[in-house]
Amino acid sequence: MTSSFKGPKASRRQFLAGAAAIGAGAATGARAQTPDPLITEVQEWAQGLGEGVDATPYGMPIRFETDVVRRNVPWLTADPISSINFTPIHALDGTITPQGCAFERHHSGAIELSKDDYRLMINGLVDRPLVFTYADLERFPREQHVYFCECAANTGMEWAGAQLNGAQFTHGMIHNMEYTGVPLRTLLNEAGIQTEGKWVYVEGADASSNGRSIPMDKALDDVLVAFKANGEALRKEHGYPVRLVVPGWEGNMWVKWLRRIEVTTQAVESREETSKYTDTLADGTSRKWTWVMDAKSVVTSPSPQSPITHGPGPLVITGLAWSGHGKIKRVDVSTDGGKTWQQARLASEAGDKALSRFYLDINWDGSEMLLQSRAMDETGYVQPTKAQLREVRGLNSVYHNNCIQTWHVKSNGEAENVEVS
Amino acid sequence: AYADAPFGLGRPALEEEIAAWDLDVSPDGTGLPVGSGDVFTGEEVFIENCAVCHGDFAEGRGNWPKLAGGDGSLADEDPLKTVGSYWPHLSTAWDYVNRSMPFGNAQSLTPDEVYGIVAYILYSNYLVEDDFVLSNENFTEIVLPNADGFIIDDREESEYAIWRAEPCMENCKDTVEITKRATVLDVTPDEEVTEEA
């Protein structure tokens, strides 16, 4: 983090523009002084014609939403190929992440692999080592599930303090999609697992290979070999045409461009499960095989990139909660930095190992707030504070930071990423 | 109706195909091909293929990974994790270099070149002498310094057992002070201005 960014503060300009709007027209429920020309004058869109149905075979969001995009943080990595970008969670609602702005993490770039060129091999301790084409995979019975994929390093930059100013950057290494695919179990049964087979080693077709070892229990449980996400083919950057979906487990194991599954007696202890994705504790020893992502939540609005621009009165506090251990049972929200809490409402029935949306509707009096959210999952696990995590792990775990996040909301509606005592 | 029956989909993988793709090497040496390489040859190959990012002595350049150094630093405020200071198994180094390095030109090295590079990385970490020759035969005799530095995920006992408790809802603390602010660091990228688009 040697470089800093001193360019024009666009976000602040936007904020001020929003604040100015308060003065102009806001005053909730107030009577208009003069007739609104957007109503009294016939607008162009009410008179002329819009675009024909042949204008856009596959559409992009309207131009007014161009800030709802993936962003990267150049100083985090040596280059943009083995790197990360962030989902604009501060601007989204509901739970399904639009694929076009769902975060990416590659180790040797997003490769282009056609369905025709695609091959999947199963080998190792199996009765019948097999090669599948893409067309073969579509002939197996399918399942469909919604799951979150969270990078193990999500919020990792925040271990030592409050660093990046926005939910997109602190919590945006995540997406949540509806997947269609074939259970890994089905493919393993097709090859016939031998009794000594205790692990599967999975790797991608890209140069990094991203090989990881998965214990057989998980492989036979809920792991999917997926080829559709949110109704359509996977995006190139998300593993087209086939990726692994490993519900509840760290995103690194969701191997993209999946090309080989090897049944083994032992873990391979590849680079991605020794050098990386191991979590160093204060005494210098490190945890390995920290696969599950624990219960976590974040308020997405208001937040630093999503300030309050409407002044006091009704305010929707909203955010996301998720747990790799199962369903979210409840989310509590504090506006005073954790002195008192009230239960938020979940927007819909919580999904298993999927994002849940929560809302808390308050009447904001315009005073400062220290906003926090605290998730509880169906195992009774309660999302910890950063102090609690540090007490067990120290400051150098890098991964698995699921601490409670605090936003300092000022009386002008602006919000900042802070830590509190 | 099909249940768990084989569907008869796919076709048998040929030996040549498995050999082409199954390259992984395990900590016990399973998967290593026959071959060898010494430190001096490894240095030449390293300078040619690796040093532009990883430095002439594997010490790293710019923001690129350091492969040597940092021994004894794992409990420090700012640990330096390298093959010598952190990695548990030499097999991982061989496997990863063979399969995924050099960055941008992976799978271009011969097995002997990989043995040489790995020997040179060991030498750069002061773990072997400069006349050392690494081969498939002596490979598993090398024990890296941090081989015993890892424990299997223990969150069940050390964390879940404590944090599965009914949380405080009222009067949870007397005072709350802001102790850190992201805007002090000011390292968040500015938004590219697209509002006029």
Automatic annotation (TrEMBL), chain A:
<keyword id="KW-0479">Metal-binding</keyword>
<protein>
    <submittedName>
        <fullName>Sulfite dehydrogenase SoxC protein</fullName>
    </submittedName>
</protein>
<feature type="domain" description="Moybdenum cofactor oxidoreductase dimerisation">
    <location>
        <begin position="287"/>
        <end position="406"/>
    </location>
</feature>
<dbReference type="InterPro" id="IPR008335">
    <property type="entry name" value="Mopterin_OxRdtase_euk"/>
</dbReference>
<dbReference type="GO" id="GO:0020037">
    <property type="term" value="F:heme binding"/>
</dbReference>
<dbReference type="Pfam" id="PF00174">
    <property type="entry name" value="Oxidored_molyb"/>
</dbReference>
<dbReference type="GO" id="GO:0006790">
    <property type="term" value="P:sulfur compound metabolic process"/>
</dbReference>
<dbReference type="InterPro" id="IPR036374">
    <property type="entry name" value="OxRdtase_Mopterin-bd_sf"/>
</dbReference>
<dbReference type="InterPro" id="IPR014756">
    <property type="entry name" value="Ig_E-set"/>
</dbReference>
<dbReference type="InterPro" id="IPR000572">
    <property type="entry name" value="OxRdtase_Mopterin-bd_dom"/>
</dbReference>
<dbReference type="InterPro" id="IPR019546">
    <property type="entry name" value="TAT_signal_bac_arc"/>
</dbReference>
<dbReference type="GO" id="GO:0008482">
    <property type="term" value="F:sulfite oxidase activity"/>
</dbReference>
<keyword id="KW-0560">Oxidoreductase</keyword>
<dbReference type="GO" id="GO:0030151">
    <property type="term" value="F:molybdenum ion binding"/>
</dbReference>
<keyword id="KW-0500">Molybdenum</keyword>
<dbReference type="InterPro" id="IPR030835">
    <property type="entry name" value="Sulfite_DH_SoxC"/>
</dbReference>
<dbReference type="InterPro" id="IPR005066">
    <property type="entry name" value="MoCF_OxRdtse_dimer"/>
</dbReference>
<dbReference type="GO" id="GO:0043546">
    <property type="term" value="F:molybdopterin cofactor binding"/>
</dbReference>
<dbReference type="Pfam" id="PF03404">
    <property type="entry name" value="Mo-co_dimer"/>
</dbReference>
<feature type="domain" description="Oxidoreductase molybdopterin-binding">
    <location>
        <begin position="113"/>
        <end position="269"/>
    </location>
</feature>
<dbReference type="InterPro" id="IPR006311">
    <property type="entry name" value="TAT_signal"/>
</dbReference>
